[in-house]
Design brief:
This protein is α+β, with helices and mostly antiparallel strands. It has a domain of about 210 residues: D-Amino Acid Oxidase, Chain A, domain 2 (2-Layer Sandwich), CATH 3.30.9. The protein has seven helices and 17 strands. The chain has a nine-stranded mixed β-sheet with strand order 4-5-3-14-15-16-13-17-12, with helices on both faces. The protein has a three-stranded antiparallel β-sheet with strand order 1-6-2. Helix 1 crosses helix 4. About 30% of the residues are buried. InterPro entries: FAD-dep_OxRdtase, FAD/NAD-bd_sf, MTOX. One of its GO terms (biological process) is L-lysine catabolic process to acetyl-CoA via L-pipecolate. One of its GO terms (cellular component) is peroxisome. Its cofactor is FAD.
């Protein structure tokens, strides 16, 4: 519904963490394929879309979080290094944690340059080479491929109503469109849209294709409990330049450490001399008024965390941006068909 390109969805921004270390083994398995595709996209476009800085899962030694990460890596034969509290302190002297805290280092984790990756995908179309039994990329923008097959791209339009049937009709503030199938990716607007189709998903919104069918509607954001929530994306200045650079610190995740919420971060990469460190939660928002939410409570939690565990960073963020999350109760994505209308 926003003009393309825009920064109101869930795929914008400079960086994302990528990793094989998860608490669910199927994600670790999926990363075998994902990593290969990212590499192929990088090679095909010449874009520097991945920085192999590693990923650090932080937790209590013998605790559930680290043990689940260890299990997922082990059963998938993924390379990792388990760090005892002593090894943890020696390897990352810029961090301050308790004597019972260690880590799991995923050597194949790192940083995806999100904006660059999205641009690279828009420049390349997938082409299945059956003889090689894998996808390769060729420089044919998917938008061009879509329109060459009779598709129409529309942006800057707000969906008003969906009428299901063998032919689906979508009404927007600027017109009506009909097609044999409809794909919805609505993020924080999911339940608002699905209300027309007599469905409501248990979603909680947190503020951080090639087809033979003639119609695709691609609104915004990941389908992932629907009260929107806003995430403050905070960047913290280093007291000593390069002390938290990618050569010194990997991406990291500290599970349920901050008022029952998790912390994640990326070394100083996007903004020189600044570490990206965020709370994996935020205040409830109206999706239409995402920038009016009061995030002072969440920011105070972050400041206390940084003061306690990152003494080499200033205690208040220098840069604050925002994004929106849309989460299911079990945090896994929703990818499904309508129970009545399979198109």
């Amino acid at each position: 519904q926003f003009p393309l390109p825009h920064s109101r969805g869930s795929s914008h921004g400079q960086t994302r963490i990528t990793r094989r270390a998860y608490t669910d083994a199927f994600y670790t398995r999926m990363m075998d394929v994902c990593s290969r595709y990212w590499s192929e996209l990088r090679d095909a476009t010449g874009s520097h879309i991945f920085r192999p800085v590693g990923y650090l899962a932080i937790g209590t030694v013998g605790g559930e979080f680290l043990n689940e990460n260890i299990h997922c890596m082990a059963v998938n034969q993924a390379p990792y290094k388990l760090l005892s509290p002593e090894e943890f302190r020696l390897k990352y002297p810029m961090l301050r944690y308790g004597d019972n805290v260690g880590g799991l280092l995923d050597m194949e984790g790192g940083v995806l340059m999100a904006d660059k990756a999205l641009l690279a995908m828009q420049k390349c179309n997938t082409n299945t080479n059956k003889s090689r039994k894998k996808n390769t990329y060729r420089p044919n923008p998917p938008q061009k491929s879509f329109t060459s097959h009779g598709g129409t791209l529309r942006d800057g339009e707000t969906m008003k109503r969906v009428v299901p049937g063998e032919v689906v009709t979508v009404h927007t503030d600027k017109g009506s469109y009909r097609g044999k199938a409809l794909i919805l990716c609505c993020g924080p607007w999911t339940n608002q849209v699905l209300a027309h189709l007599n469905i409501r998903l248990p979603l909680k919104v947190i503020s951080s294709y090639s087809t033979n069918l003639p119609f695709i509607l691609f609104m915004t954001s990941w389908l992932f409990r629907c009260q929107p929530i806003r995430i403050s994306v905070c960047y913290w200045r280093e007291r000593t330049r390069d002390s938290h650079s990618p050569s010194q610190l990997p991406t990291f995740f500290d599970h349920q450490c901050c008022g029952g919420h998790s912390i994640y971060g990326i070394p100083s990469l996007e903004y020189p001399g600044h570490v990206k460190l965020c709370l994996h939660n935020g205040p409830a928002i109206d999706a239409e008024l995402r920038d009016t939410a009061d995030s002072s409570h969440e920011q105070k939690l972050l400041e206390d965390y940084v003061r306690k565990h990152f003494p080499g960073l200033e205690h208040k963020p220098s840069i604050v941006e925002s994004c929106i999350y849309t989460m299911t109760p079990d945090t896994h994505p929703v990818l499904d068909r309508h129970p009545t209308w399979n198109n």
